Amino acid sequence: MTTSAQKPRQLWEAVLGELQLQVSRPSYKTWLKDTVGLSHGDGEFVVLTPNTFVAEMLEQRMYSVISKAMAKVVDGGVEVRFQTVAEGSLAVGQTEAGTGPQRVRRDTQEDAQAIDHAVPARANGHAGRRPAAAGLNARYTFGHFVVGNSNELAQAAALAVAERPGFTYNPLFIYSGVGLGKTHLLHAIGHLVLSRGLSLIYATTEEFTNEFIKAIREGKTEGFRNRYRSADVLLLDDIQFIIGKEQTQEGFFHTFNALHMAGRQIVITSDRPATDLTLLEDRIQSRLAGGLVVDIQAPDLETKLAILAAKAEETGQSLPNDVLDFLAGRIHSNIRELEGCLNRLAAYAQITARTITLDLVKGAVADILRPASRRRLSDTVVLETVCAYYSVDKETILGRLRDKHTALARQVAMYLLREESNLPLASIGRLLGGRDHSTVLHACRRISGRIGADTHLRSDLANIRETLSSP
Ligand code: ADP
Ligand code: MG
Question: pTM of the predicted model, to two decimals?
């Protein structure tokens, strides 16, 4: 414990140490890791954050946990404020007259802009549109997006694009299976962009198509063109719906080109890789390939747990860890299902006025929780699918050969058996020719550690999962 005003840095380090125990690892990494204690005095502690976005997040979503951690370190607690400093204008450890701590609130966009020089705001008619008016879901922010191995590339790319629209990756193309966070990330970009006073158009490809067709029918294509081409940022969700609609593709192509040439940011999502959108005109495909393409994989166990914990906290539920573990192990891949489960559980707890325990969940509630569509994959199916995909015999994968190809197939099999069939490590080891549980653990860790950076592996996993999920 200390009350010294001289050592804000060390003091904040201590608070961070405390926070590491309180928040999930991904959250800590994303929001807290790069913060620095700046000054301390007069009942106030100022924390320096890398950008306004982090400041907002800490202020709005983590304030109470930070306050509590602070109270453990500083006697009686202090008020914590977050400050963002434009690079170079203020050295860490000193405060200048006139640039005192600034509380960043969502409704003070001018403040946020004034201290953020990363993006010059362009003047135009749409600036300052409210998120709701732009069709954005208030909950789909970066702050509510849990980052893990499976989605960190996509999240980082989305964040980079939102922070410097039109500069980094243009277009940005995000693809994944359903319910894995594409729309969420798209809206998150939208929120950040709007908070900076830039103009934005968010549309599902269906909306885009309908609007386009209506404009043609009513002879108002000029208006359509102007509306779409005036945006600083265009977010287009679910581009796969444009497949086979030639006229709309034409309209999209011209809109795309006009925006792209003007240096405006375009972000597109799809439920399949760009190369699989075979019915898209070649010229659109090559445009998409010219930017950055990122995918989101099914979340691993750790990420599922972090998401569950975050959602439970958000909705004010306190569920025991073993229940969270159980849910995360039970729901495979789709985060929307994960959320659905949690909601059903909350409703059940409320209606029956019972405390949720693992026994209760396992017994009485298990049926309510079972997602209607998803079956648990049998270990044989998983194993056979992996063998077929890598063209490796079952005997070979179970055997002792250790060449690179066989070893990869074997590790992928172990990983998928863990993720998709939810088998215990020891059982997986037995299945795979009597290997011990630490070998399996090593394999699972190796694969999940590589998912982030290895695009081949990612597409292998996506393809195998696709086969597994098709009826
Ligand atoms: P998609 O567009 O890929 O089908 P969504 O973006 O609609 O998926 O996501 C489905 C649900 O899961 C949404 O409620 C979203 O908020 C949630 N979700 C997805 N990924 C995450 C994540 N990484 N952290 C928190 N919530 C997530
Ligand atoms: Mg979506």
Answer: 0.58
